[in-house]
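pipeline: protein-struct stage 2 | run 1193 | Uracil phosphoribosyltransferase
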Amino acid sequence: MITVLSDEFSLVHSFVNQLRSVEIQNDRMKFRRNLERIGEIAAYEISKKLPSIPVEIRTPLAMYQGKELEKQPVLVTILRAGIPLFEGILNYFDQADCGFVAAYRKHDSNDYFTIQQDYLTCPEIENRPLIVADPMLATGASLVEALKDLLKIGKPSELHIVAAIGSEQGVKAVAEAFPEAHIWIGAVDEALTEKGYISPGLGDAGDLSFGKKLQF
């Protein structure tokens, strides 16, 4: 299932507009904050879908019958670009366990790239909700590789993927690889360039959040 958070007009439109704008992108703090906001909105929407259990709460006046999450989810992000989006989700699921994957595009002299994954650490995910944050689904290749390795650790009770922007091709690739996943995404763009970048997109989310990286 795919939910595009900007299908109906909401503040997500404004946050995505600002992520795209070259005038606003010069403000790194604002760029990171807008990714964080999209993560917060996605977390709120995901929380509606997670199983709950009844709880009894003592107030100053009486006992109250409320609800809480049945199980805390596991949150995982793709380093480094995913950190602000991940932090937004963690702001809402603040008791969650967390995992991290270091994956990136490794370019050759012809600008062809492969996915290099150097690091993965994750808590137990068996029979727990798994939420994975990756801000941009361009080809979807890095996320697919990361998820394949994550799912070797265990089988989550449900799988949620959160992204800010994706290409139609990238979203389709992830959905086909993991048909059980619910994809929550800020916006979907039609085009993917020959070099595998989303157009109009927003540029490189990692560079815009943390500074331009060297190519090795």
